[in-house]
Structures are given as C-alpha cells and as structure tokens.
Amino acid sequence: MTVGLLAAILSGFVLAVVAPKLYGVARGCSGWLLALLPLGLAVYFASRGQLVASGNVLQEGYSWVPALGVSLSFRLDGLSQLFALLITGVGALILVYTGGYMAGHPQLGRLYAFLLLFMGSMLGLVLSDNLLGLFVFWELTSISSYLLIGFNHERSEARAAALQALLITGGGGLALLAGLLLLGQVGGSMEISELVKQADHLRTHSLYVPILLLILAGAFTKSAQFPFHFWLPGAMEAPTPVSGYLHSATMVKAGIYLMARLSPALGGTDTWFWCVTVVGGTTMLLGAWLALLQSDLKRILAYSTVSALGTLTLFLGLGGTLMIQAAMAYLLGHALYKGALFLVAGTLDHETGTRDSDRLGGLFRAMPITAVAAGVAALSMAGVAPLLGFLSKELSYEAALHAPAAAWIAAGVVTANILLVAVAGVAGLRPFLGKFIPTPKPAHEAPPSLWLGPIVLAGLSIAWGGWPALGADALVSAASTSVLGEPIDTHLKLWHGLNLALALSAATLVGGVLVYAVRSPLRRIVSGLEGIGRWGPAGWYALALQALNAVADGQTRLLQSGYLRYYLMIVFVTTTGLAGATLFARGRLVQLGDWSGLHFYDVGLVVLIMLATVATVFAKSRLAAIAALGVVGYGVALIFVLFGAPDVAMTQFLVETLTVILFVLVFYHLRETPALSGPISRGRDALIAAAVGVLMTTFVLVAADLQYHPPISSEFVERSVREAHGRNLVNVILVDFRGLDTLGEISVLAVAGIGVYALLKLRVGKKAPAADEANASHENDLSEAKPITKSVVTREGEDS
Amino acid sequence: MNSLILRVATRFMLPLLLLFSIFLLLRGHNEPGGGFSGGLVAASAFVLYGFAFGVSEAKWALGVDPRGLIGAGLLTALGSGCLGLLIGQPLMTGLWGEWDLPAFGKLHVGTPLLFDVGVYLVVVGVTVSIIFPLAEE
Predict the structure, then answer these.
(1) Measured between CA atoms, how close is A146 to chain B, in angstroms?
(2) A662 neighbourhood in chain B, CB within 8 Å
C-alpha cells in the first residue's frame, strides 16, 4: 500500500502551518517557494496519468473509527485526477500571483496559510472515497472559503459576504450530511466505490428521492446554482487571487464534482433528470444574462462563472456518453480561460487602480503581455478556433443536438453562449482595445509574478486547442471513463466537417458580436428596473437573516434576563410542565403502599423536616433561614441513615455542613435588604414551588411503584466483589462500573470550581475599585446635596 | 474569629480530621467512605482551620495551591483510567495486584483506588478554592 495520496493531502495542511513563518524569512520570493509544493503535487498526479488512463485506480485506506465504519480511504481515478490537477496546477500559479498581487501586505503570510489550507481540503474532497471523509473535507473548503472571502476583515462588506457564503454553503452542507448518511444507510456502505455497484438498489429504494434532494441541495449551494447563485458574486469581496482560485477554477466546482461522482449511483432517473437539468438550465441562462449587465470586471466574471456552472450541471443532468465528455471538456476549458481572466482582472485593478470595465480601454500598448493573455483567454471563452474553448463548445453543441428534446437544449445552450461571447468581449478584449482611457493610476506592464499565471493558462488553451492529443484528450477520456463506468476514448477535434454544430458555433459568434454592440443601451434600460432585484433570492436571504436575528434577539431577551430568579423560574416551570404532562398522560394511579412498617421516629423526622421547611420560608433573618435549611438537609441525611444508606448519609451530612458555611459566607458579603417582592410575585413563586413539590412527590411514588425492567442492582451486587474486588457497592459503582461518568462529573466540578474562583477573584480584583468609585461619587453627591438643603432650610428658618 | 477554645481544639482536630479523611478514602471500596466523602472531610478540616486562624494561615497549612490540587486530581483520575490502555485493555479497566507485606499481611490494591485519590484531590481543591476567597475578607 502506498501513502502517496494521504501524504499529498496532508502536505498542504502542513505547509499551511509553516507558511506564515516562511513568509517572515523569504518575504518577496515566498510565493515562488510555496508554489513548489502544488507544482510537485501536480507533477505527481500527472505522472499517475498512465495508470489512470487505462481505467485503473489508485486506492489506499486507513481505518479511522472502525466501530462506525468510518475510514480514511482515498481513491485516484480519472475524475479525481482531472480535479486534482486543476487544484494543484492552478494553485501553484495562484500562489505565485498572490506573492506579486499582495506584495507588502502585512497579513500576506496568513493569506498563504488560508490558500494552502483550502488546497489541502479541496484535494481531500476530490480524493476521498468515504462519504464521511468527503463531507469533512467539503466543510473544510467552506470554512477556508469563509476565511478567504473575509480576508479584508476590516471591511464590513467582506465580513457580510463571507458570512453569506458560509451560511449558504454551510446550510447546504447540513443537507448534504443528512443525504450522505441516508445514502450510506440504504447502500450499506460509506465507500463511494461500493455504492456505485448498487445503483439499481439505490434508485428503486423508497428513500431515493429524499437522498437525491438532500445531496443536490448540498451540490447546488456549493456550486452557486439558482436560487443560491447570489453568494458567488458577493464572494468577489475576496482578494482577486482568491476569487480566481476558489470561485472560478476549484471550490465552486466541488458541487459539480459531487454530482459527477455520484451520478453513476444516483443519476439516470426522471427525478434526477428534471431537478438537475431545470436548475442547471435556469442558472446557465440567468448567469449569462446577469453577467452582461455588470460593469465591475470581477462581478462580470463571477456571473459568467455562475452560467458556466449551470451549463455543467445541465450536462450532468442530461447524462449520456456525449454529454459527460462535453461536460469534462467544458470543465477543463472553462478552468483555464476563467482562471486567466480573473487574474487579468486583478492585474488591471492592481496596475490601473480600477476594475470598472467602463473606465478601461486601449491598454494594449501599456500592458502587452497581460493583453495577449487576456485576449487568448477571452477568445477561448467566446469559442474561437483553434482554442480549447472552441473544441469544448463544438463537443457540447454536438452533445446537445443528440440530447432528448434537442431543440430546446441546443437553443438554451446557444443563447447562453451568445451572451457569454459578448461578456468575453467586455471582460477580456475591451480593456485593451480601442481608444485609451486615462486610468486612476498610470498604467504599466505588471511584474512577471502577475503575468505568469494568465500566460501559462492562455498558453494551455492554445496548446490543447491545437494539439488536444498532448494531454487534454487523455484527461477528458479518463474523467469520462470514471463517471460513465465504461472505457471512453475522447478525441477532441478542430475540424468535424461542415455540420450543424459548426454552423451553430458560427451563429454564436455573430450573435455575440451583435449583443456586444447593443450591450450599453440594454444596460441602460435594465438599470431602470433595478427594483426587481430586491425580490430575488438575495432579498429572500436578507429577509431570512433578519428573521433569524429577530428570533435570536427575542428568545435571548425572553430567556436570558440576567436575573437568577427568572432563570430558576424558567427551569422549574419547564421541568414541571414537561415532566408533569408526561406523567399525566402516561402515568397510572399510584398505590400508596402500606404504612405498617413505620416507626414513631420516622414520622417525627418527617414532621421536623416539614417544620424546618416552613421556618426557612418564613424566617425573618437570613441567618435563621440558612440554619433552618441546614435542619432540612440534616433531616434528609437522617432518613438515609434510617433506611440503611450510610454512604449517602455521610456525604449528605458533609455537603450540608459545607453548604451552610458557604451560604453564611456569601450572605455575609451581601447587604441586608428588605423584602422587595410584592404579594403577587410571592403568590406566583408559592404556586411554582407547590407545583414542583407535588410533581417530585408524585414522581417518587410512581418511581417506587413502577418497575419496567428487572433492577440492575442484583447484577451489580453479584459482580461487585467478583469482578471489582469491592464490597461497598456505592463506591464500586462510582469508581469502577460507572467510572467514566465519575470522571466526567469531577471534570465538571473542576470547571465549576475554577469558574467560581475566577468570578470571586474578578470581583475582588477588578470590580472592587469601580464599585468603590461609584460608592464614593454617590457619597459625594449626598454630602454635597445635604449641606445645600440644610442651608436652604436654615436660611428659610432665619428669614421667618 | 478570635476564640481560644476553637483555636486549641482546631490544633488537635486538623491532623485527626485529615487522618480520618484518608481512612475514609482507603476503606471506601469495602466500607462506607470513598474519595468524595474523604475529600469533603479534608476540605472541612481546612475550612475549620481557616475559621480559627484566618485564611492565610489555612493556606499555609494546606501547603499547595488549591487549583493545583484540582489539576493533579483530574490527571490522577484520568491517568488511572489510562493505565489499562498501556497493556491493551479498554480505557478505565480496573487493574488489581496483591503484595505480601511482612507486618500487615496481604495488600490488595488496584487502579480504582488511584481513581478515588483523584476524586479526593479534586473535591478538596474545588471546595477550598470556592470557600477560601469568600472567607478571605
């Protein structure tokens, strides 16, 4: 067994820990150094290509919680390999880019750490074979995304966007957890590779629909599908390298990964088809339309990413050999051009001081290298031959024309692509062409760390577009093979001959250019209708968040009053209400047993306890009340003695003694106050007290009367000496049979003791001066006030 | 509290009470007693001493920081439970041994006693660290 996959995942986490230190030492070149790890990992995953291409998998497993069937099992197949290469390859470029983009930022070390943390989580996600392992990494990506979006944590917008992304993906994560657990229960295994073999059983099971909907809820939230799409544009608050990494190439595709991974087990049914295609298609069209209406480069790219994710979802929903290949090719092409465009947007922002597409133009002369990279990426996005984007679009048109309801699907895909051609023009070409527009900062070419990423990604778009056999074919074939479960040999081709797909491609370009031309008037018209946006999903989210806060506020005000008496009241009333209701509904009439065995001293003791209770309640002074309460406690201890529980009695005596001491000490510190509560609140308290008393009495009687199971005490008695070597059953239970409980109890005791100590010391150490001051000022007020009144009085007296 | 009778009595009571608390702790497994009640007796002894001679004197008599006792107690209890792990048994498995001591006869001890010592220390530590600060002023 190899340890390669686990080591690959863990290396990201380890490097995340040391990255801030490394940044402290290496400063400027730390980005280049850190990029070596993902680069090495990319080489490692690529070197497994031969193995994976032949349909084999690399598998390793470690037992984790064997009792629950949880294991850390990892699996590298074609689909995982495609994602792992994107994660590590783009990751290396992003780290280099981050070093240049954020140079000099005081918290750059932390950003590196978050990025590497994310990389490790994402690798774990795509390599896990165990559902629970996958879920843990899934949640880790949500958390690291939260940290990355909120990186500029002084901005309230960044914090709100980070929280929004976390709440939406985290909420989806909860649904996903439920779905995965159900899936594991129904399928009888938590290993995806096992579940895939039981596809027929899963699809016909009565729980299939709930499982599917829950898992899709997780995938849709993560991959920003309608109506959850709005968190992705919001997440553009993150530094641009983060947006380029998480929100275009990797994390948002986790949902796509999950759907592709589970489609052999769950796909192919009508429910799957309708849910996934309708949501995917809506997202595809909505994202492309909204992208066209933005002017901020990052938001344009974010919405076009939403559209691309919708397209991928649509393809996975449709399924079938051609569609899956188209999806994998589209995934690869999109990651390359979108990553490049994001980085270019960041570079433009960095070098010119704005990323508003209306204020950028004619920058080719100033930044030629960036412009070339951006141009290639934009043309790939528009689907211009001979770039990879063209090849993947040809394949997707081909697949759409063979899909069920081909006319509808093809029309939808073509419409979205027409809009995206115009978007590509706005995002990648317009800033560099046309008339030069003066920018806030004098524009100049970016340093190598900033243009390296876009150039490499654009170069790959060219290389794989012209010569797909250099690797793109293999990647897409292997990934499709894993999803479809049968050997697939994809050949991406530049020239398919004069067919309908090619005609559609040409029509798309022409349409795109036309849309680009009418883009500005279109935006003016739509901006007049902005009010509609308030009623969209983002508005629902805001309302839901407000409602949640209102509920939290309300229940906090209601329950957390800060008054001990109300806390006690809530506890007592709740307990009495719930337990009493159960007792009333399920209880039986209580036999009061026989009273014959009662001695006169038993009765005397009970009378004493009752008298002492009354004395406690009506005592005039506190000290008397404490003493009377002590009598109650000692009386109860005597009952234990009389009924043969010396252990309990002894402990009760000691606790009672210390309680009285504690009360005396505490009340010594408190000022004597007159009775403040009026007759109404006293009556209410008496009522609650009586209810608790009646309930407890009834409980004791019922508990003594009922015996559902044979008592456990006989077994304890039997095993106490034999196995635990002790004749004192109480002690044996405490230190042996239920030792773990006792360990928990003394831990609670210790925490409570330290807490009380801290409170007392805080009061003495810090509060005291403040209180003294308050008292002092209060006294000053009085001492000033009094003479004045006195003098007034005397003066009046003198006058008269 | 300035009472000669209390002071003289306490001087004799402290060692006796402490001895009694250890007696309770040790016999606990077979007769009434145990770490909890033993710990309460020991804590009461120190509280009594505090009333007679003042808290600072009682702290001196205790000799160690009460919070240290809490930590030591928790570690002892946890450690006694972990001993079983060392020889491949589940957590909290009771291990017993017998020794022949020339004067006393057979000594039969096990990890549950060590666990009870931990309980004893935690109880003393918690009780004293709550009562001493309250009694201080």
Answers:
(1) 37
(2) 130-131, 134
Burial class (CB in 10 A: 0-12, 13-18, 19+), A640: middle
> CA-nearest residue of chain B to A670?
B134
| ipTM score of complex | 0.92
User: If you average pLDDT over every residue of chain A, what do you get?
Assistant: 85
Taking CA–CA distances from A654, the nearest residue in chain B reads B40
Helix (H, G, I), strand (E, B) or coil at B79: helix
Which of B13, B17, B119, B120 to mutate to probe the A interface, most A CBs <10 Å?
B119
Q: How confident is the model at residue A244 (pLDDT cuts 50, 70, 90)?
A: confident
Task: Quote the pLDDT of residue A444.
Answer: 80
How many Å apart are CA A9 and CA A95, to the nearest integer? 17
Q: Taking CB atoms and an 8 Å cutoff, what residues of chain A touch B123?
A: 746, 749
Q: Do A740 and B119 touch (CB under 8 A)?
A: no
A105 vs A615 pLDDT, higher one? A615
Burial profile A491-530: b = 16 or more Cβ within 10 angstroms, e = fewer: ebeeeeeeeebbebbeebbebbeebbeebeeeeeeeeeee
- Determine, for residues A726 and B116 on separate chains, whether the beta-carbon distance falls below 8 Å: no
Q: What does the alpha-carbon distance between residue B95 and residue A48 come to, in Å, rounded to a whole number?
A: 52
Nearest CA in chain B to A667: B134
Q: Alpha-carbon distance B137 to B135, whole Å?
A: 6
Which tokens is A529 given?
């209708």
Question: What's the mean pLDDT in A188-214?
Answer: 88
Among partner residues A655, A732, A761, which is closest to B133 by beta-carbon distance?
A761
Nearest to A654 among B28, B37, B71 (CB): B37
Which helix (H) or strand (E) segment holds residue A178: the answer is helix A156-187
Which residues, in sequence order, are CB contacts of B124 under 8 Å at separation 6+?
Answer: B39, B42, B43, B46, B66, B69, B73
Partner-chain contact A728 B91, CB within 8 Å: no
The DSSP code for A494 is: S
pLDDT tens digits along B67-80:
999 999 999 999 99
Which residue, chain included where needed, has tokens 């465009």?
A: A341
Conformational region of residue A456, where left means phi above 0, alpha means psi within -120 to 50, and beta covers everything else: alpha
The proportion of chain B whose per-residue pLDDT surpasses 70, expressed as a percent, equals 98
Chain A residue with Cα closest to B25: A731
Rg of the Cα trace of chain B?
17
How confident is the model over A744-797, as pLDDT tens digits?
A: 999 999 999 999 998 888 765 554 444 444 444 443 443 333 333 333 333 343
How many other CB atoms sit within 10 Å of the CB of residue A60? 18
What Cα–Cα distance (Å) separates residue A434 from each residue in A370, A378, A430, A799? 16, 16, 7, 96
- With beta carbons less than 8 A apart as the criterion, state whether A143 and A118 touch: no
- Closest-CA residue of B relative to A646 is B32
Q: Please, what's the largest Cα pairwise distance for chain A? A: 122
Residue A725 is nearest to which of B67, B73, B108, comparing CB atoms?
A: B108
Q: What is the pLDDT of residue B43?
A: 95
CB proximity list for A793: less than 8 A, separation 6 or greater = none
* CA atoms of A315 and B24, how far apart (whole Å): 76
Chain B nearest-CA distance from A625, in A, is 20
pLDDT for residue A785: 38
pLDDT tier at A2 (50, 70, 90 boundaries)? low
pLDDT digits (tens, 9 = 90+) for A138-151: 999 999 999 999 99
Q: Per-residue confidence at B137, pLDDT binned at 50, 70, 90?
A: low
A657–B44: do the CB atoms touch at under 8 Å? yes
For residues A45 and A479, the answer to whether their CB atoms sit within 8 Å is no
Percent of chain A past pLDDT 90, that is, above it, reads 31
